[in-house]
Fold this sequence. Notes:
The mean pLDDT is 79. This protein has two domains: 1-70, no CATH class; 117-244, no CATH class. The longest helix is centred in the last third of the chain and has 38 residues, at 163-200. The termini are far apart. It is built from nine helices and two strands. It has a two-stranded antiparallel ribbon. It is mostly helical.
Amino acid sequence: MFLANKYDWKVGDKVPLQTNIPKRDGSRVWTFDIVAIMENSDFPTGQEGRFLANCDYVDEERTAVKGTADFFILRINDPARATQIGRMIDALFATSGTPTRTNSERSQRESGAQWIGDVNFFTKAVPGAVCFMLLFLTGNTMMQSVRERIPEFAVLKTLGFSDNRIMLLVFAESVFLSTLAALIGLLIAKMLIPEVKNTVRAGFVDMPWSALLTGFGLALVVAFASGLIPALRAKRLNIVDALAGR
Length: 246
């Protein structure tokens, strides 16, 4: 449906496609008659981008590797048995002249994305860099905040606030700043990723709720790490020196 909408194809149209596969007449232009336009339940409506051709027609016209296929797509009833079934299929052809290697479409798409580089490295390095910057920025913000409010903390201690309560106030501010920003960012990502997934038709791009919980947990870690030194400084604050501006 995606290709039909993009090129305004209709059932009955003749479509010439230029490929790298030569025909018997030496031409590389294949002409197909559109006999049906289909949808795929694995993709949102209108996002299926495959063009399926008649196998007998292609095999009869091509000049090389006749009677062969690059891959087969199988649909199974129980996704939990995908690995087991894949191993059984490979075992059937292990001793043949054309052994197979069975994997899921998800793995195939992920391996196809490796051409841009080590995707696993990028997916780990980018969040690591983001966490470091968050730690640095939040820590700097908290240090500046405590520094500007030293007289206020001194007054609170004069009024009877204990050192531990002062430390908890600083930690509470750090947690509020980090978790609020993380929550906003994670919710925005949760809303945008489905749009990106539909646009690039990348089935392996996803953001489950467990990822949101993980991100929220990392925000708490960053909050406590960035607020530790300012909180200890506020706890050890000397009332006389603070009110004197020393």
